[in-house]
Sequence to fold (397 residues):
Amino acid sequence: MATAADRRAYRGPKLFSYGFRPFFLAAAIWAALAVPLWLLSFTGYLPWAALTREWHIHEMLFGVLGGIVAGFLLTAVPNWTGRLPVMGTPLAALAALWLVGRLAMLAAAQLGVWASVIDSAFLVVFAGVIWREVLEGRNWRNLAVCGLVTVLACANIAFHLGALAPEAAGQRAALGAIALLIALIGGRVTPSFTRNWLMQRAPGPLPAPSDRADMAALILTGLAAVAWVAVPDAPLSGALLTVSGVAALARLARWQGLRTLIEPLVWSLHLGYAWLGVGLMLMGLTILAPDMFPRTAGVHALTAGAVGVMTLAMMTRATRGHSGRPRTADGWTLVIYLLVNAAAVVRVWAGFGGAGSEVLLATSGVLWSAAYGGFALAYGPMLLGWPAQWRGRPLPA
Fold:
């Protein structure tokens, strides 16, 4: 049977019919829970040995983001390759492996080195799945995506190794891979979705086609990431990061984002990409002018900003599209977008210190949890495969 017929023949739980369903739902719930857990531990209200600063960093980079990347790529790769998506029992096994990793990290104090082994298994297996699908589908264009997922898996292992490979190197490698994934994939989907929307609803100038300027911006981002991982405090790294941030914003300016302000499902992608440019610039400036720009400001502009905003933008769009809903934002979706952007702004602001920084930190955490918790509540029924009407009550359109 053809791939489409194979998919229609699937009779298992709807949750495991496509990669975005279990991973978007589970990762969103974990994103909403993990930050409050960390804040309660940080403020002394929850004395749990596992909830260290390193746990917080790890779960944001490799737990939450690892799950979201898995959901996105397990949905996108079949479109790229024309192959049958991973579904049913294999998908359920992958989701279970991710979940076991989260539980292992919570019990790290009791499990010791086994927590690292269990947690590392998911990204290694997932990278293998993506390599297999892309190679079998002869989709050479996306070999770079396979490479970046592999870097993320190796960065996770480096994070756990600690003494053999300094944790900071693993963190930087993960952040570099994430920045490149946003630059690469976000740089494809943002102008593409914008073009499609404008052609249907707002005739006029369209996003500029991909050309050498786009390739130059990608190369700059790659060079900046490599330099920062290798020599994080070198002026060259700071200069490359700053220039790559400017290049990202210049690239964004060519995509007609201002013409999409009436549709949050589109402008959220532009705003997520803007956070990438701001994050890269701030990270560069923390090296070039450390007295003026704190290190945490740049890191959180990239993570809470670029990652938080872009992932929610992609998760909402993919969920609506693949569940048969209209590709337009409803009120719930707009609130989610506003909350995650507010969380990013407050978290970057808190990095500059001063009076009230702990209050800002807590406020950012509440906003972040509300954004991802709101996604789980509003989009959970769609991800579970419930119909638009359930028990006589309409679900979000």
Notes: The chain has a mean pLDDT of 91. The radius of gyration is 20 Å. DSSP finds 14 helices and two strands in the chain.
